[in-house]
């Protein structure tokens, strides 16, 4: 964190309110210096990424440094959104971590084929979720160099 400002923005795309609340609390508990924005479906995710509609102000809704993506969402599911993100030259550099309850090998294979950077099965307990958030933050914000 430079100058006391949070410079890392994480965009969570998940339609489950409880999962979103737990992710927000786990992020706080993990002491990860990141601002979390939440969208509830794939269409809203794309609106955020393209600064459309209510997300037009990119000072309030900055480009995320990382996307946490659930697979099963209404309107446009995570698979479709991932395909759109990774096929767009301006968006494909944003790391996408699929964070889902699916354990299906077919999903894991297909998600990596679409260009996901990681596939994580959602932990069922809060302490484990905090540890996942810490690991994500350590790796993606402290170790890896991401494009500005």
Gap between N and C termini, in Å?
A: 15 Å
CATH class: Alpha Beta
Choose one word for the global shape: globular
Spatial strand sequence of the major β-sheet: 2-1-3-4-5
Written account of the structure:
By secondary structure, the protein is α/β, with parallel strands linked by helices. The chain has five helices and five strands; from the N terminus they run E-H-E-H-E-H-E-H-E-H. The chain has a five-stranded parallel sheet, with helices on both faces. Helix 1 (17-29) packs across helix 5 (126-143) and helix 2 (42-49) runs parallel beside helix 3. Residues 1-5 have low confidence and may be disordered.
Core attributes:
148 residues; alpha/beta; Rossmann fold; 17% strand; globular; disordered N terminus
Brief description of this entry?
The chain has a single domain, classed as Rossmann fold, CATH 3.40.50. Helix content is 39%, strand content 17%. Strand 1, helix 1 and strand 2 form a beta-alpha-beta unit.
Secondary-structure blueprint:
Blueprint: E1 8-13, H1 17-29, E2 34-39, H2 42-49, E3 66-69, H3 78-86, E4 96-100, H4 105-113, E5 118-121, H5 126-143
Parallel strand pairs: 1-2, 1-3, 3-4, 4-5
